TrEMBL record:
It comes from Brevibacillus choshinensis. Belongs to the FlgM family. This is Negative regulator of flagellin synthesis. Signal peptide: none annotated. Residues 34-85 form the Anti-sigma-28 factor FlgM C-terminal domain. It comes from the Bacteria.
Length: 91
């Protein structure tokens, strides 16, 4: 049984050609543009979020941080399940 054949140059040439990209006159490889699209659902959620600088928001965040640090932060599993369900039912 022969594993390596000495005349298999075609595959090596095909591999070597994949690295060749066309370079423009400037000597740089042309790049595509980055683009971000925000869905209407995300925009609606953003409108519903409290002002991050409000005292109520800061108090809530501080309270949650303290609970996480102390290891006392707990979320009821039924609330998590409700959120998942409502998310999946929208689609």
């Amino acid at each position: 049984m022969r594993i390596n054949e000495p005349n298999r140059i075609g595959m090596i040439n095909a591999y070597n050609k994949t690295g060749n990209t066309q370079v423009g006159k400037t000597g740089k490889i042309p790049m595509g543009k980055d683009e971000v699209n925000i869905s209407t659902e995300a925009l609606e959620m953003l409108k519903q979020v409290e002002d991050p600088d409000s005292p109520q928001r800061r108090e809530k965040v501080d309270r949650l941080k303290k609970q996480v640090e102390e290891g006392t932060y707990r979320v009821a599993s039924d609330k998590i399940a409700e959120k998942f369900l409502s998310f999946w039912q929208k689609k």
